Structure prediction request, 309 residues.
Amino acid sequence: MRSSVIVFPASNCDRDIAVALEQISGSKPDMVWHGETSVPSSDLIVIPGGFSFGDYLRSGAMAAQSPIMKDVISKAKAGTPVLGICNGFQVLVESGLLPGALMRNRDIKFICKDVFLNVERNDTIFTRKYAAGETVKYPVAHHDGNYFASPDVLAEIEDNGQVAFRYASEDGEVSEADNPNGSLNNIAGIYNKELSVLGLMPHPERLISAELGGSDGVLMFESLVEAFA
Amino acid sequence: MKARITVTLKNGVLDPQGKAIEHALSGLGFEGVDEVRQGKMIELSLADTDKTVAEARVKEMCEKLLANTVIENYAIEMVE
Prediction:
């Protein structure tokens, strides 16, 4: 699997994702600086976590206007899969590749902890190695992860099966008690309509071996590797 | 020509920072304060001389970058 990781000023999970991609796919991703105008031909483009441009104006707003994003958007629209993690998710909604917005957390606090998530569907290139209805543990580390969409957009996302992950309890129960940030419908990650673009707030790349506290993130990258084998 | 843009969260969109400010005001003894909303103000100078043209450009800036219209409203005030 050939992948590219877009690097913005103040991205800080670019190395984590590079390690995860290399460990699981066996090949190093191309690291692409935001000032470039074209992404090398890739099976997967990743927009990593961090605080691109210091979260100025709104998280992800400045990065969404970076020169490289024109090519990311055009390649995404032509079908190249894109994965946006944390700040990457914020960049994807700001660039219009995914619907909705990510607002300040409900309790205004930065949240850094492990959360449980229901994998809503296991028939996509990102989740095909997960079991149907599986609940996984990924860490979150964000200040602006409160997913919002207007009622009609939210209904459309739900009807289309675009919800990728929902915050849940360890045994998979979805309730407000396990919603860390106030996200509507406990949404932690969504797909575009074509299921080729995924944005999520939690970090699968941070739990890829027992030494890191868990390996629930591995299956996402194994899914992608299998999809592009 | 100068423009002053006020960006606020839309009605119906929860504003946790506004809520926190409201609680803090109440804690300070300011009674009867409700519906506190926090926003941001952006000022910029334009080379334009035609006010209508300038305002149209600022509106485009708001739509493309300065506001996220999924969650925010904006108001433009042109200042001579």
